[in-house]
Structure formats: C-alpha cells, structure tokens
UniProtKB/TrEMBL annotation:
Keyword Iron-sulfur: yes
Protein known as: EF-hand domain-containing protein
Keyword terms, alphabetized: 4Fe-4S, Iron, Iron-sulfur, Metal-binding, Oxidoreductase, Transit peptide
Molecular functions per Gene Ontology: 4 iron, 4 sulfur cluster binding; calcium ion binding; oxidoreductase activity
Membrane-spanning parts: none
SUPFAM superfamilies registered for this protein in UniProt: FAD/NAD(P)-binding domain
Source organism of this protein record: Blastopirellula marina DSM 3645
Residue span, EF-hand domain: 613-648
Taxon lineage: Bacteria, Pseudomonadati, Planctomycetota, Planctomycetia, Pirellulales
Ranges where the record places region Disordered: 1-20
Signal peptide annotation: none
C-alpha cells in the first residue's frame, strides 16, 4: 500500500462531517446518530432480521430505504464503504445529469435542488456545491427517518430457499486510507441479514449476481435489439503518432496505454465497456492542497505515449492558448462544475482505457486492482506531465502548484471515496430498456418513473489503427447521441419489469441501479436522478410485496401505481401538455448542437449514418442539406438550411416525401 500523503495515523481519520472550513453545530440527535453509525464500523451485529435490506447507501439506496420506512417497514442499509451518497457524495452534482427537471417526481424532485444547499439565504450555483455537504444532507435524511447504516461490509453470498433469498451474508472489508476497496476481506462472513425483500442499489450489481440472477456486461451487437449504434463503433480522435516501443518497429511491441485492435467489425458485440474516472478537485491553495505523489510502481516509460502525444500537440497547435487547453484535457481533464471529469475530445485524458471490463463483472480482487489502477494512473500522469521535457515549461510550472483539495474529501487525503462506475452489470430482467425506448418508439404499461438523456458513452479502448497511409492511434467507443436532452427531447418510461428479475431466478429482489437494459439503453438511463427515482419506486414496491405477501413480480399493479402517484412520482409524459425542456429556452439549432447530437467520430462533420442515428425519422432530409452531395453535412450547409427554414415556414411540407 502506498504511503499516506496526508500523514493520517488512523484508519478512521477525523470525521469528514466536521471540516475545518465550516463551523457546523451538531444537535444532540445528530451526535447520537454519528456515534451510532461509527459504532457500526467497529462492531456490526453479526445477525440482523429486518423487513427490507438495501445494499449500498447510494442516493438510490437511501431513497429506497426511506420509501420502505415510510410505508411502515423495518429497513437496514449495508454499505461497503465508510460514506453515504455514492457519486453525489463524491463530486457529481445533483442537477448535472438532469436536463428536464419537469420529468422528475417523488422525493427526487425536491432533493435535486436542495442537496448541498444552505438552510437559509440564496441558493448556491451548481459549481459551488460541496460533495461533503451533500453527504451531510444524506446523513441528515437517514437520521430523520431513523434508517440505520452498517458500513464496511460487502456482499459475499446469498442463502436461498428456491427462488427466494433468505439470508444475505457480508464480509467485513474496510476501504483503505485513500478510499480504495481492498482485495481480501478483513473478516469473512462477518454479518448475516435475513429480510423479506432485498434491494440492490449498488453501481456494480454484486447482490443480484450473488442471488443467482442473470446479467449482461459489455456491448450487444447491432442485430440483438436492432440498435443502429450498438456494438463496436468507428474510431475517434485518430492521431498520427507512433504506437510502438521502438518508433517505426512493430516487432518491438505496443507502448503501454495502447492495445492491439481485437479485429471485430463495426456493430459486433464485445465485452468492453466505457471508461470510468474520478470526479476530483484540485487546488493551488497551500492551506488545503494535498501533494499528489507518484505511485510506488511509477515508471516514466509507462507514459511514453503521453509524451509523444504532447509532442504532436506542441508541433501542430501553434496558438499558445489552444495548446494549453489541449494540455489541460490530458491532465487534469475537463472542468465540469468545479470538479474535473474525463475530456472525451482528447486522445489521452485523466483516466485509463481498456480496463473497465475487468471491473464490470470481476471478483473483488479484480475490482480492487482496477480501482487502484485508476488512482495510480492519475498520480502517474500528473507526475509525468509536470516533469517531462516535452511538456512546455510554462505548463509544467503551472500544474506543479496543484494538489488535491482536502476540503471535499478530508478523510481520504483529497481522493473521492467513489470511483465513477458508469456501467457494470445490467440485470437481465423481464423488460430490457433499449435505444428504442430512448427514441420513444415503445409503449410501457408499468412505469415507475421517467428518464431523459442522450446515449452517452465514453471511450472503451485506445488502439493501434493501420491503413494504407500509415499507423495511427485512436480511441473507440465514444459517442453522445442526442446531447444531454436526448435524441427526441422527450422523456421515456422506466418499466417496473426492468427492476425485477426473472421470477424463476429470484422472487424477493429489486434492482434500482443495475436495472435491465442494453448497453445503449443503459448509456442513456444511467443517470443519478433516474437511479433515485427508481430507488424510491423500488422501496414502495418492496413494501407492497411484503404487505401483499407476494413475489415482487406479482404485486397488485393498480395498487402499486396508486402508491407511486401518491408519492408524487412522474409516471407519464404528454408532449401536448408537459413542457419539452428543462424549464429554460431550447438550445439554438446551430451546427454546434448538430455535432453534439450526431457527430460520433469527432471529425466536425455529419455523415448520413450519423445523421440517421441522431435524427431518427429524418433520413429524407439529409440529401437536401448535403447540397454538394459530398456525403457529409458541413457547417455552411447546415447554416444555409436554417436560413431556408426561416424563409419557408412550410418547408417540411415542401421537402418531405409524400406518405
């Protein structure tokens, strides 16, 4: 294990809920809750019997617990880490992935705009929200509703009677001092929980797997669900840099950080999945800066590809401001809302590629290895960027002043406690959410909430690409179909069947995060507001299954729908009545928006295939806009089309083919 750069002497450093930048006054009740929760860390009861057991204190799990508790059930949350709030407590902001606030309901509708906000005074803008305060707010919710959380326990196995889980067994496995899960548990089979209904609210789907439910990982072929953008995708960020250890010599092998193409055709299925990364904070303030040290296994040769990429950028980008922006994209990344995120426009950014699939359905040793690899990669990349001579001196000096910011994650030396696991397992449930749902091509009669977002995947691989011209390095798997508002700007329903397993596999399990979806369907639905909505609906369903003494697949549909309505869940969307946007003006229909919706290979042009994916049902319009018949829509052509529409209000009737 690496030395602790913050000099922490205890496995449980000072309470993160009491940072030095705030003077928070605890009530007696708050203090008792914190003491109670802390005691769970050290002496979790070995045997627990409850009505509903929720696995993980993600936002989805917390809302599931509160919903079940409100319905009169006894609940307990078992959390693998020492923290609550999942990604919302680790840097992601509540409203960042909510393009249409009007499509949210239930507890989620209020929480999205209240989490992290001060109790009095003007609200903070998104960029000012602190993940530490968001964790405090979730703790306050748990205290208010009397929901106990048992920390540092991860699922080991399930004991079943037929298709029913009788007991879930958990290992004691504390995260390390830098917030990374460990490979081997401290104590095996340390906790047993007997419950009537279980809810898997984890990002990994480890409970559903332990319960014997079938699941998906990786990418389906285009043919499996007739999804045009499924499977292996065309490469992006194709860059003319040499990928070999000895430049020009293929026999020397590929450099680290680039892999050989597996050779599968566009549209084929494979086991790869999109990149993960930290959403982390940096600062130059010496009062809060934590030095980023090299990992123990750091070797400069491991980042030679980065050096060659930097040299390429320096040689081709003559504008100093643009060059600096490209370097920022490598490390620290893309400034999202004051926290750093992956810069998908860069060939190389702040997270490794090609290893997420090892985490998705891997055992705990694999998960620990991949999680640590992300942390070590980020530390190594920083070390390289501030020291390699190919990086302009001005930028080396600039980033040498930066370190992790301990104000947001003080108990783990500035490292977020949660890696952004964008997708892992996906339940093979009774309904599979696909791209057809995202495009509003389906009808659902058992909605539990609404989702709306584009089909958003980060790159899966960085590969060697050869053609008749030369050898290149490129990324594969990156796309953002439809932008944040989605390809139709209309929400779609999440069915109850998608959060319930096949009845022959498990009758008392609900899955509110790793629900049943294709790779593309999940790429749209995988947002925290949707997980929160699904969590509350799962908690309500759990209560109904217990009260009715029925399997979760057989609860009374009408009674359940009435309960969801009573909870304020938004279950249906009527475009003729409901607002079509997030409450503000719709985005201007310019070329930048077209690229956001359609440009999958990042070449700043839109070909016919990209148009048909991003603009479904408008295939007849492509040839009209493509005035020079080049097979690509360019910026001037799209601008001319917008002018034509302004001059011809009935343009659609003129151009569209007769039906």
């Amino acid at each position: 294990m690496d030395a602790n750069p913050a000099g922490l002497s205890s496995r449980f450093p000072r309470d993160p809920r009491m940072p030095r930048e705030r003077n928070m006054k605890l009530t007696i009740g708050s203090l008792l809750l914190l003491l109670g929760l802390s005691s769970c860390l050290f002496a979790a009861p070995r045997d627990i019997q409850t009505d509903v057991c929720i696995y993980t204190a993600t936002p989805s799990g917390i809302l599931a617990a509160i919903a079940a508790k409100r319905a009169g059930q006894k609940v307990v949350i078992v959390e693998p880490g020492r923290w609550v709030g999942g990604m919302l407590g680790a840097g992601l902001k509540p409203m960042q992935d909510c393009p249409n606030y009007a499509a949210t309901g239930g507890m989620t509708h209020k929480l999205l705009k209240s989490l992290g906000q001060p109790a009095a005074g003007p609200p903070l803008p998104t960029g000012k929200l602190s993940p530490l305060q968001i964790r405090d707010d979730f703790l306050a919710l748990l205290e208010k509703h009397g929901v106990p959380v048992i920390y540092e326990h991860r699922i080991s196995s399930c004991q079943k009677s037929g298709a029913k889980i009788e007991t879930a067994i958990f290992d004691l496995a504390p995260f390390d001092a830098l917030g990374v899960p460990i490979a081997e548990p401290t104590v095996r089979n340390h906790l047993q929980v007997r419950a009537k209904v279980f809810i898997d609210a984890s990002y990994e789907g480890d409970l559903l797997a332990a319960a014997g439910c079938d699941y998906r990982v990786g990418r389906e072929a285009t043919t499996e669900f007739d999804e045009a953008a499924a499977g292996v995708r065309p490469v992006v960020q194709k860059t003319p840099i040499d990928p070999y250890r000895v430049a020009g010599d293929p026999s020397s092998g590929l450099l680290p950080l680039v892999e050989k193409d597996h050779g599968l055709p566009i549209g084929a299925a494979d086991n790869h999945t999109q990149a993960y990364n930290y959403r982390y904070y940096t600062t130059a303030d010496p009062d809060h800066r934590v030095t980023i040290t090299p990992p123990t296994n750091y070797q400069v040769e491991d980042f030679e590809l980065v050096g060659r990429y930097v040299a390429y950028l320096a040689a081709t980008e003559k504008d100093p401001k643009r060059l600096r922006a490209r370097l920022v994209g490598i490390w620290p990344g893309w400034m999202n809302s004051q926290e750093w995120n992956y810069q998908r426009a860069s060939l190389i950014s702040m997270a490794p590629l090609g290893i997420s699939q090892d985490y998705a359905a891997g055992d705990y040793a694999a998960k620990a290895r991949v999680w640590k690899a992300h942390q070590d990669y980020l530390r190594g990349l920083y070390t390289f960027m501030k020291s390699d001579a190919r990086v302009p001196q001005s930028y080396r000096e600039e980033i040498s002043q930066l370190g992790l910011d301990d104000r947001f994650h003080p108990e783990t030396a500035g490292w977020p406690h949660q890696l952004y696991i964008r997708v892992a397992r996906r339940l093979q449930g009774r309904y599979v959410i696909t791209a057809h749902d995202v495009y509003n091509r389906t009808q659902v009669d058992d909605p539990i909430g609404l989702a709306q977002y584009g089909i958003d995947t980060y790159p899966s691989r960085r590969i060697e690409v050869q053609d008749a011209e030369r050898t290149w390095v490129a990324n594969e798997g990156n796309m953002f179909v439809g932008g944040s508002r989605g390809p139709t700007n209309v929400p779609y329903a999440i069915p109850y069947r998608a959060i319930t397993p096949q009845p022959e596999q498990c009758t008392n399990l609900l899955v509110s995060v790793c629900f049943s979806a294709s790779h593309l369907g999940y790429a749209s639905a995988r947002m925290e507001p949707v997980f929160m909505i699904a969590g509350e609906s799962a908690g309500i369903a759990a209560a109904h299954a217990i009260q009715e003494q029925q399997p979760v697949q057989q609860i009374d549909k009408q009674a359940y729908a009435a309960a969801l309505h009573a909870a304020g869940q938004k279950l249906n969307w009527d475009p003729s009545v409901d607002p079509s946007s997030a409450g503000g003006a719709a985005k201007k229909l310019d070329f930048a928006l077209l690229l956001e919706e359609c440009d999958q290979d990042a070449d700043d042009l839109v070909c016919a295939a990209e148009w048909n994916i991003g603009k479904p049902s408008f295939d007849w319009l492509f040839s009209f806009i493509d005035a020079d018949n080049s097979g690509k829509i360019e910026e001037q052509e799209y601008a001319s089309f917008q002018d034509y529409k302004a001059q011809h209000p009935r343009w659609r009737e003129t151009i569209a083919p007769a039906k």
